[in-house]
């Protein structure tokens, strides 16, 4: 029996979505590096990228400057070390988190990043007054694009796009395509900002690490886990090369 063309088109319409995860974004960078090195077949079929908070930052780099993922990785280690030295982390009075993030990403993203991201990158945004969530895919400038990374994730931490298959990536164990696989005794899941996470001790530890960056050694381990989890996915889906 012939497969309808509409179904074929839908199967070939692939989206990538990176979950909000704070300082666990280093896991995303590991996954993005694996996709860039060994998932070219997949990336050729990706029509849209999506993300929330740190996830949208990595989605932007993978879309607009994939050859600079390693530079982004090194910046993340330095940025986390700087925040660990602050008395109250990123919330330390007088510490300008956004200015530091902007200065680092200015060296990584191309000047026309907002143009490259136009209608291909979908960032989850939350209106802090109404708590209403929406996705934006148009950016007036590179500065506007960077600001959007910080605005989302409160109500929809893992955007699923309406057309095609959305491949989901998260450093939290759950019902996801690319993620750690915790062995929970109860196999119970909780929905946190539209992301199904396993109820496990490991995920509770990860939630703390998302807010307060762990040691560099732990971050390097998270990067490697992201890389290997993405490789497993590529092999399973026959996208590895």
TrEMBL record:
The active site is at 53 (nucleophile), 151 (proton acceptor). PROSITE patterns: PNPLA. It comes from the Eukaryota. The keyword Hydrolase applies. A motif (DGA/G) lies at residues 151-153. Gene3D superfamilies: Cytosolic phospholipase A2 catalytic domain. The chain crosses the membrane at residues 16-36. One of its GO terms (molecular function) is retinyl-palmitate esterase activity. GO terms for cellular component: cytoplasm; lipid droplet; membrane. GO terms for biological process: lipid homeostasis; triglyceride catabolic process. Keywords: Hydrolase, Lipid degradation, Lipid metabolism, Membrane, Transmembrane, Transmembrane helix. A motif (GXSXG) lies at residues 51-55. Residues 16-164 form the PNPLA domain. PANTHER family: CALCIUM-INDEPENDENT PHOSPHOLIPASE A2 IPLA2 -RELATED, PATATIN-LIKE PHOSPHOLIPASE DOMAIN-CONTAINING PROTEIN 4. This is Patatin-like phospholipase domain.
